[in-house]
Amino acid sequence: MVIQEDYDLAVAAESFRSVFLEAIDLRGYYPYIDAISYCSKGYFFKKYNKESAMATLPHPLALIGVRGKASKILVFPGAFVPQFTLDDFLGCLLHHEGEHAKDFYENSANVINIFRKSIRRTRELKAYTNQMRRINQGIHSSAYVPSILERMNQALL
Ligand SMILES: [Zn+2]
Fold first, then answer.
1. CA atoms 93, 3, 78, 83: torsion sign
2. How far does the centroid of ligand 1 lie from the alpha carbon of residue 98, in Å?
3. pLDDT single digits (tens) 36-78
4. 85 to each of 9, 30, 46, 136, how far by Cα in Å?
5. Using CB atoms within 10 A of its CB, is residue 45 exposed (0-12), middle (13-18) or buried (19+)?
6. For residue 42, how far is its CA from the centre of ligand 1 (angstroms)?
7. In this predicted model, which residue has the larger pLDDT, 99 or 150?
8. For residue range 70-109, what is the model confidence (pLDDT) as tens digits?
9. What are phi and psi of 71, to 5 degrees?
């Protein structure tokens, strides 16, 4: 389990981020997520970092229709936002990326079409809706909603 002070430390100190990510309680998303890794270099960093702060990598077998395979989640430096609270961060990690991981786990027969743009947009819309459903709980910062709306607009272009 992690607390707000852990998130603040991870924002301030890059060397703490891997430890922080390993300590996160995945709650109901536990079966769907195999690992959460900090990613600040390499192939996936180059591929995804510009367009998002986190990315869900489906298990290779999920891509050919095998169900019940957990995904890996990559977390890029841009996910550590000083204005964000721990709940904001977890909203992105669990209620957005976790929702993608759940989709890949349960519904992977459709995932063969992952690279088709319309399917990507549908998948993003589903994850953002899941994430936004929680904004009335009063746990998020004032920076969270504008930031999510901005990311949502980018993703649905
Ligand atoms: Zn997404």
1. positive
2. 9
3. 999 999 999 998 887 789 999 999 888 777 899 999 999 999 9
4. 12, 22, 27, 15
5. middle
6. 21
7. 99
8. 999 999 999 999 999 999 999 999 999 999 999 999 975 5
9. -95, 165
Strand ranges (E), 28-133: 33-38, 54-57, 71-75
Ligand 1 midpoint to CA 100 (Å): 7
Q: For residue 140, what are the domain limits? A: 4-156
Q: Within the chain, how many helices (H) and strands (E) appear?
A: 7, 3
Q: Which of 75, 119, 118 is nearest to 96 (CA)?
A: 75
CA 33 to chain CA centroid, Å, is 10
Backbone dihedral angles phi then psi of residue 92, each to the nearest 5 degrees: -70, -45
Domain total in the chain: 1
Rounded CA separation 141/63 (Å):
36
